[in-house]
Inverse folding.
């Protein structure tokens, strides 16, 4: 037996981590050199050949991560162990964890609110690190780089590089490999390259002189809360048939595509296979998934906060659309009053359906919360008769939009959601702030076929599943009781199943009819197993 690759320890918790190898130290130096080039550019060091130095910088970052990851996992047997994750400073909210969190948070604050310090020029040519990215931006879209292009490039490089690390780490699990390839593809093609190329087509004759709007094809309302603002609608309609098709696609995504896919596959089709936020969390944030708070208190806060965000974005979007609609029925088929009546009717139908047919699946506080939110929204919609022009819900629509953009779009999703990976875990935005995750979770909880089945008789209570659940679900508690896991917050990442040493957990989409009730078997109830099997 080769003692270098085969662990002789029977401990489920693993051993304290060893010091990094010499090759990993060299890999760290390579990656830090790539980062140093960008830091020098940020301090206005002028590189003579920006194309060359940008290539060197990104290549060094990418190859450093890959080299470090290869050294970490190439000599290990397939399969997941704790590997001393709670002994490492970076992954246990230690000194280096806080340093990483502060550094990432500082970067996001500068990116969102002070891009001029990165070299962004409102007039004239860019400077600093943004100027370093100008050649790549001009090659893709024909325009100089912005802070968002720099962010998008680094975001994509991180998902690709750490995605390869994730593939090596979870190479024993086919499901993990497939969904990682998926998020890498969607981020690179649909979120980064295609929108930039669409911007390059602006003004093309094929568009009848119009402009093709910048559109991230994988973003769906309410995640892209800005999609139905006045300037966006004008951009769609001025782009001819292509722009109109994109507008229709955006509407169908909300009311048709999303519910169907969520019914069949659960929210994982988006949160774990498509979404860029989830893609970064799963790849670059994988080392911090164990930091998610598993307490009941955190779960209660999560439910109230994330659903409050959904109410906020619904009110904000309604107010924004209301603000630019007309009132003359002879000119507009969709007037202000008609739109608000339609919104109220749709919300009433959804609320009525839930209360009539799905009420038992909601806990009492969730029922009270749904009633309270429904009453608030209906009351605010009624207030529009007392609001002035450009007002709805007694506030200016622009005020609501700016407040949401600042509090949720910037502070929560960017600064806290990503910057605090090493402190709160990799899915803090998805758990507490993402309106898309909340809406998909609502659908998953009430009518989706997706669930994680458990075999309680096989569970040895090792706790790996709960430790590595990035959404703060105490998976072990379900497994010990043999209960299926149907939770709104579950993103179907499948890591709980991947790290289970006994094969207790399984992700399923099939119908429940004819399935053995594992809870009855576990409790020793009088159940004819063969009779249940033969019902299939």
């Amino acid at each position: 037996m080769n003692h270098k690759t085969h662990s002789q320890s029977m401990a489920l918790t693993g051993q304290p981590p060893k010091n990094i190898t010499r090759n990993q130290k060299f890999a760290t130096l390579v990656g830090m050199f790539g980062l140093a080039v960008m830091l020098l550019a940020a301090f206005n060091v002028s590189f003579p050949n920006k194309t060359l130095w940008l290539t060197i910088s990104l290549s060094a970052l990418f190859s450093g991560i890959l080299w470090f990851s290869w050294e970490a996992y190439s000599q290990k047997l397939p399969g997941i162990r704790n590997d001393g994750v709670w002994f490492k400073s970076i992954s246990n909210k230690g000194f280096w964890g806080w340093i990483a969190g502060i550094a990432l948070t500082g970067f996001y604050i500068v990116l969102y609110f002070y891009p001029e310090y990165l070299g962004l020029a409102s007039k004239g040519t860019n400077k600093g690190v943004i100027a370093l990215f100008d050649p790549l931006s001009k090659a893709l879209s024909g325009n100089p780089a912005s802070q968002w292009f720099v962010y998008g490039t680094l975001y994509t490089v991180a998902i690709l590089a750490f995605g390869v690390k994730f593939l090596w780490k979870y190479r024993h699990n086919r499901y993990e490999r497939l969904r990682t390839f998926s998020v890498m593809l969607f981020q690179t093609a649909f979120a980064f390259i295609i929108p930039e190329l669409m911007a390059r087509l602006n003004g093309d004759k094929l568009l009848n002189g119009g402009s093709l709007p910048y559109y991230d094809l994988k973003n769906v309302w309410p995640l892209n809360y800005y999609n139905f603002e006045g300037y966006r609608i004008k951009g769609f309609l001025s782009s001819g048939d292509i722009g109109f098709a994109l507008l229709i696609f955006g509407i169908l995504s909300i009311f048709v595509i999303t519910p169907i896919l969520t019914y069949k596959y659960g929210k994982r089709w988006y949160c774990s296979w498509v979404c860029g936020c989830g893609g970064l969390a799963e790849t670059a944030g994988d080392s911090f998934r164990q930091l998610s708070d598993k307490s009941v208190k955190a779960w209660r806060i999560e439910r109230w906060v994330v659903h409050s965000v959904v109410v906020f974005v619904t009110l904000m979007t309604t107010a924004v659309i209301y603000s630019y609609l007309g009132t003359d029925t002879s000119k507009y088929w969709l007037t202000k009053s008609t739109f608000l009546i339609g919104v109220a009717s749709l919300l009433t139908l959804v609320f009525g359906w839930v209360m009539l047919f799905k009420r038992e699946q909601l806990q009492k506080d969730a029922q009270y919360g749904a009633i309270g939110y429904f009453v608030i929204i209906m009351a605010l919609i009624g207030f529009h008769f007392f609001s002035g022009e450009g007002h709805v819900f007694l506030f200016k629509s622009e005020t609501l939009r700016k407040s949401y953009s600042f509090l949720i779009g910037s502070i929560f999703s960017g600064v806290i959601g990503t910057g605090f990976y090493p402190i709160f875990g990799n899915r803090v935005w998805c758990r507490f702030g993402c309106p898309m995750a909340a809406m998909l979770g609502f659908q998953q909880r009430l009518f989706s076929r997706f669930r994680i089945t458990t075999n309680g008789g096989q569970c040895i209570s090792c706790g790996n599943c709960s430790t590595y659940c990035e959404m703060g679900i105490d998976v072990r508690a379900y497994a010990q009781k043999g209960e299926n896991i149907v939770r709104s917050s579950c993103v179907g990442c499948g890591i709980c199943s991947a790290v289970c040493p006994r094969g207790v957990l399984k992700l399923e989409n099939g119908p429940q009819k004819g399935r053995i009730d594992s809870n009855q078997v576990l409790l020793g109830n009088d159940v004819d197993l063969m009779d249940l099997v033969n019902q299939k």
User: Anything to note?
Assistant: Residues 203-209, 521-526 have pLDDT under 50 and may be disordered.
